Inverse folding.
């Protein structure tokens, strides 16, 4: 198994949205150019009647003249990586969605209910049967964040791909 240290600043551009400059939330990718944005950011861009919303906001490549929504791909893998690399991002996003629903007296959407259940499941200790195959429960990418200094200014990240 090989470890290759990667600086946080080198991967930050891949997990941030160029429209809001925040970390990706519900990552949506345009297949023609592979640029990824937050779902709400690209939705606001596509719904804006004042702009030419049939082109990528980053590189200006044509998305779809008739229905740009049709070609968007929700990138669960990239979103999962963003949640792993940014501590507490997932938890804070769930809390923001809960607060939004509570402020407006709205019922929780089914996706939010699933996220809440996942969060509860993560907090509960898991018991794994002794005769089970342990690699099924492990993630395929391990991420280790290390600091060589006590002020935490420079973080080195080690991404380790686990292959079987």
């Amino acid at each position: 198994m090989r470890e290759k240290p990667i600086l946080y600043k080198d991967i930050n551009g891949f997990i941030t949205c160029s429209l809001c400059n925040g970390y990706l939330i519900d990552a949506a990718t345009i297949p023609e150019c592979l640029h990824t944005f937050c779902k709400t950011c690209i939705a606001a861009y596509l719904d804006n009647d004042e702009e030419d919303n049939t082109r990528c906001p980053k590189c200006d490549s044509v998305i779809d003249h008739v229905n740009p929504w049709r070609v968007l791909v929700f990138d669960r893998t990239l979103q999962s990586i963003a949640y792993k690399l940014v501590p507490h991002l997932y938890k804070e996003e769930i809390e923001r969605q809960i607060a939004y629903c509570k402020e407006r007296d709205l019922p929780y959407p089914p996706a939010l209910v699933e996220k809440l259940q996942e969060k509860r499941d993560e907090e509960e200790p898991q018991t794994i049967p002794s005769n089970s195959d342990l690699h099924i429960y492990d993630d395929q990418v391990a991420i280790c964040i290390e600091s060589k200094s006590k002020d935490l200014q420079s973080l080195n990240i080690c991404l380790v791909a686990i292959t079987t």
Q: What stands out?
A: Residues 89-103 form the longest helix (15 residues). The chain has five helices and six strands.
